[in-house]
Design a protein that fits this description.
Helix content is 53%, strand content 7%. By secondary structure, the protein is mainly alpha-helical. It folds into two domains: 211 residues, HUPs (Rossmann fold, 3-Layer(aba) Sandwich); 93 residues, Tyrosyl-Transfer RNA Synthetase (Orthogonal Bundle), CATH 1.10.240. The strands form two sheets. Strands 1-2-3 form a three-stranded parallel β-sheet. Bound molecules: tryptophanyl-5'AMP (TYM). Its main location: cytoplasm.
C-alpha cells in the first residue's frame, strides 16, 4: 500500500482538514508507505502573496508534524522541491480532455462569476493533482469528500494514458474517504463546508485557537431549539445539529448513533460544553506542539529538504516511463 495526500498552503489547518483528512493520514502511517506534501504549486493558482506563501508553507509543515505526521516515518515535502510533479502535469495536460475539466465543480466555485479572469493554472489545477498522485504509483489517497471528483478525474486520466500507450504506466489509485468526518460543515451554516476561505473566523475552529476561543465558537455555533434525537433519522433537516454530532463522533472515535445514544433528549445547553471540552482535549496538545515548532524555520526547511530528496528518487522512474511511452527523447 502506498499512501499519498496533500494540503494547500493557503492558510492554517482547521478542524475540517484535521478530521476529514489529517487524522487518517496519521493512522495510515502504521499501515503503509506514506507521502504527505504541501501543495504550494496549487496555492499559487489564486492571488499569491510571496511572503505569506513562504510562511504558510513552513507553518503547514509544523502543523502536520504537530498533528502526528512523523517526518522520519513518512515522506513530508513541498511540491516546489520535486519538479517531477510539474513535469508530469504537462504530459497529463495532453491526455486530459477539456470536456473533463469543464465538469469540475471546484473550478466553477473558485472562479465564480469571473471565469474569464481566472488563471489557466486554476483551470488545470486538477491535472496537477493527478500528477501528484500518479507520479508515485499511489494506491490510496486519504481525502475529504470535496476531493472525490478530482480523484475520479485522476483515475480517468490514468486509465486513458495507460490505454493510449498500451502500457501500465500508472497505478489506478483508490480514494480513502472516512465515514463521519468526510464533510465537516461551517459552524455558522450547516449547509456550507468549513473552509479557510470563509470570511467569518467564527465559522471554523483553527489549530491556532486557544481553549477560550474554541469554547466561544462552539457556544455561538448555530443550532436549533430541539433536543438531540434518539436516532439518526431525527437529524434529517437539521444540518447544524448533524454537523455538531458528527464532529463529536469523529473526535471521540464513535459513530454518530453512539453519540446520540449518550445524549438523546439533551439540549445544546448540555451538549455544547461537552463538545467544547472534547475539542480542547484533542487540539490543545497539537496546538502546543505547533507553537513549539513553528518558529524554527531552519529545522522545518531541513525536514522538507530531506523529504523532497526521497520523493524525487521515488518519482523519477514513473516520469522516465511516461517520457519513454510518449516517444520523447530524454536522458535516463
Ligand atoms: P485542501 O488543502 O483544501 O484540504 C486538505 C484536506 O482537507 C480536506 N478538507 C475537509 N474535510 C472534511 N471537511 C471539510 N470541511 C474539509 N475541508 C478540507 C480536503 O478534502 C483535503 O483532503 N486539492 C487538495 C490538495 C491536493 C491533493 C493532491 C490532495 C493537491 N494535490 C493530491 C490529495 C492528493 C486541496 O485543495 O485540499
Amino acid at each position: 500500500m502506498r499512501v499519498l495526500s496533500g494540503i494547500q498552503t493557503t492558510g492554517n489547518l482547521h478542524l475540517g482538514n484535521y478530521l476529514g483528512a489529517i487524522k487518517n493520514w496519521v493512522k495510515m502511517q502504521d499501515e503503509g508507505e506514506c507521502l504527505y506534501f504541501l501543495a504550494d504549486l496549487h496555492a499559487i493558482t489564486v492571488h499569491n502573496d510571496p511572503a505569506a506563501l513562504r510562511q504558510n508553507t513552513r507553518e503547514m509543515a509544523a502543523a502536520l508534524i504537530a498533528a502526528g505526521i512523523d517526518p522520519d516515518r513518512s515522506i513530508l515535502f513541498n511540491q516546489a522541491q520535486v519538479p517531477a510533479h510539474a513535469e508530469l502535469a504537462w504530459l497529463l495536460n495532453c491526455t486530459a480532455r477539456i470536456g473533463w475539466l469543464n465538469r469540475m465543480t471546484q473550478f466553477k466555485e473558485k472562479s465564480g462569476k469571473n471565469r474569464e479572469g481566472a488563471s489557466v493554472g486554476l483551470y488545470v489545477y486538477p491535472v496537477l493533482q493527478a500528477a501528484d498522485i500518479l507520479i508515485y504509483q499511489t494506491t490510496h489517497v486519504p481525502v475529504g469528500e470535496d476531493q472525490r471528483q478530482h480523484l475520479e478525474l485522476t483515475r480517468d486520466i490514468a486509465i486513458k494514458f495507460n490505454t493510449d500507450f498500451e502500457r501500465e504506466i500508472f497505478t489506478i489509485p483508490e480514494p480513502y474517504i472516512g465515514a463521519t468526518a468526510a464533510r465537516i460543515m461551517s459552524l455558522r451554516d450547516g449547509t456550507s463546508k468549513m473552509s479557510k476561505s470563509d470570511p467569518s473566523d467564527m465559522s471554523r475552529i483553527n489549530l491556532t485557537d486557544d481553549a477560550d476561543m474554541i469554547a466561544q465558537k462552539i457556544r455561538k455555533a448555530k443550532t436549533d431549539p430541539e433536543p438531540l434525537p434518539e436516532s439518526l433519522d431525527g437529524l434529517e433537516g437539521r444540518p447544524e445539529a448533524k454537523n455538531l454530532v458528527n464532529i463529536f463522533a469523529a473526535l471521540a472515535e464513535k459513530t454518530p448513533a453512539e453519540v446520540l445514544a449518550e445524549y438523546a433528549g439533551q439540549g445544546f445547553g448540555q451538549f455544547k460544553p461537552a463538545l467544547a471540552d472534547l475539542l480542547v482535549e484533542t487540539l490543545a496538545p497539537i496546538t502546543a506542539r505547533f507553537n513549539a515548532l513553528r518558529s524554527d524555520s531552519t529545522a522545518l526547511d531541513d525536514h522538507l529538504a530531506k523529504g523532497a530528496e526521497k520523493a524525487r528518487t521515488l518519482a523519477q522512474p514513473t516520469l522516465d516511463a511516461a517520457y519513454e511511452a510518449l516517444g520523447l527523447v530524454h536522458r535516463t
